[in-house]
Design brief:
Length: about 350
């Protein structure tokens, strides 16, 4: 049985009014008397009338839909960012369409082009680890498609960007490990193409330089799929622990990468447990054993801010030509995994990064 929703024509027929009168009454037009408005609204509520979104989109030339591109929804950072996106979109009467690239540049392109073809009003994009050719996004942007980048951004397209302070977050995490007495700190990170990879690596290097610890290229390992492929993380950990310069601490630069790496290290059962900290927005870091030291990003706020900026572009009556990059602070939450056993657990706490 085909579902058929109530229409303006149904209301008009039942109340013996013209469709134009019903339409104006539903919009609250001053041309319609208060009595007629009341009659129409009460009947519309009785039959559960809802405006046809397709008809509205044709009239307004907008779909009131926002497309979102992330690498993976099952990622603590992105799930929280999406919550922030939806909180703003819902209150502004926009629908959200979420797609996943799974770190594939091809899947990302297909998702973007599909959403553009379906007529979304704008795009919120966090780039995949394989994204090097952004010509399809440039073409859409040049044709007037509103685009805002968040978390994983690019300088190739002039638009709003919303990021965490990756440099300082990585700097404080690395410096914290140095203060604990660690000298051979491995940095396990994602694809070198990503903006977050470069920013976090720069913060890591700056902390080493400040404390006069020589930078060792062999302690830098890239997992191009950001922890989505467990074997990739296992391989880099095995490389680190089979090398002459075994790390005494590990700093990871991604949400899934941090959780997967920490789990593998526990299974490896090294003779001497390495100090550990990483970027992750997990809500249960204190349930790990040892409790997990993390760099936490303001994911919800990033999602909200990016959505607000996108809607500003969508609803602007004039072309937007001035753009900004908003950088939000991270927090270093210190727990047992990064503390040397000789140090007191009282050192645990939270530090703005």
């Amino acid at each position: 049985m085909k579902f058929e929703s109530a229409t303006i024509k149904d209301i008009a027929k039942a109340l013996n009014l013209s469709t134009s009168t019903v339409s104006r009454a539903l919009r609250g037009s001053y041309e319609i008397s208060a009595e007629t408005k009341k009659q129409v609204l009460e009947y519309a509520e009785k039959i559960n009338y809802r405006p046809n979104p397709i008809a509205l989109s044709l009239k307004e030339r907008r779909t009131r839909a926002i497309g979102v591109v992330v690498s993976e929804i099952a990622n603590n950072f992105f799930s929280q960012a999406i919550n922030g996106i939806e909180s703003i979109a819902y209150n502004r009467s926009y629908h959200v369409i979420i797609t996943q690239s799974h770190e594939s540049a091809e899947r990302e392109r297909v998702n973007v082009e599909h959403m553009a073809a379906r007529g979304v009003d704008g795009l919120l994009v966090s780039l995949s680890s394989e994204a090097t050719d952004l010509s399809y996004l440039k073409e859409l942007h040049e044709k007037g498609m509103p685009i805002v980048f968040f978390d994983r951004v690019t300088n190739e397209i002039q638009t709003h960007k919303v990021i965490a302070d990756n440099y300082l977050g990585a700097f404080h995490a690395t410096e914290h490990l140095i203060y604990q007495g660690y000298k051979k700190i491995a940095h396990i990170t994602s694809s070198p193409y990503l903006s977050i990879t470069k920013e976090r690596l720069d913060g890591y290097k700056a902390a080493l330089e400040k404390h006069k610890i020589p930078f060792n290229e062999s302690l830098i390992k890239h997992c191009n799929h950001g922890g989505m492929i467990v074997e990739e993380v296992e391989d880099v950990l095995n490389e680190l622990y089979k090398s002459k310069t075994k790390p005494d601490a590990i700093f990871t630069a991604g949400d899934r990468l941090t959780i997967v790496c920490f789990g593998i290290l526990k299974r490896m059962k090294q003779k001497k447990e390495a100090g550990f900290t990483g970027f992750t927005n997990t809500q249960v870091g204190d349930l790990f054993s040892p409790q997990l030291t993390v760099v936490r990003q303001p994911a919800f706020d990033i999602g909200q801010t990016a959505t607000e900026l996108l809607i500003q572009i969508i609803e602007s009556r004039r072309p937007v030509t001035e753009f900004e990059t908003r950088t939000l602070e991270t927090s270093l939450i210190i727990r047992e995994s990064s503390l040397k056993k000789a140090n007191s657990a009282a050192e645990s706490g939270s530090v703005q990064a």
